[in-house]
């Protein structure tokens, strides 16, 4: 089974393309038919159950917490970098050419 994201969005919903072996497709079609459902609804239910199982797993929760902490550290580092770019320069550094730099043509 292969899951490909074709990147299209319609009405705030992502569209995914799923490749299934013929026997799995036949089984899924039968499950949907017997439940009076659609293949899409059955896939959605399976994904919801998978996500619920993942979020109740302590190892997964620890990984997600670590990823969130990494993101927060990166955001803070980027925020600090941007803030340092926006700080006003001292009057001496803003005027004239920097120390040690020649004012003639480049080599």
UniProtKB/TrEMBL annotation:
The annotated region (Disordered) lies at: 86-107
Question: What are the GO BP annotations of this UniProt entry?
Answer: regulation of DNA-templated transcription
UniProt-listed InterPro entries: Ribbon_hlx_hlx (IPR010985)
- The name under which this protein is listed is Ribbon-helix-helix CopG family protein
Originating organism? Blastococcus colisei
């Amino acid at each position: 089974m292969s899951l490909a994201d074709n990147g299209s969005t319609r009405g705030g919903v992502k569209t995914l393309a799923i490749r299934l072996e013929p026997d799995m497709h036949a089984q899924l079609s039968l499950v949907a038919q017997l439940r009076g459902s659609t293949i899409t609804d059955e896939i959605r239910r399976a994904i919801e159950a998978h996500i619920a199982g993942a979020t109740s797993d302590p190892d997964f929760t620890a990984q997600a917490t670590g990823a969130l902490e990494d993101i927060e550290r990166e955001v803070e580092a980027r925020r600090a970098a941007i803030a340092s770019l926006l700080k006003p320069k001292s009057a001496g550094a803003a005027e004239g050419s920097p120390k040690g730099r020649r004012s003639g043509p480049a080599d």
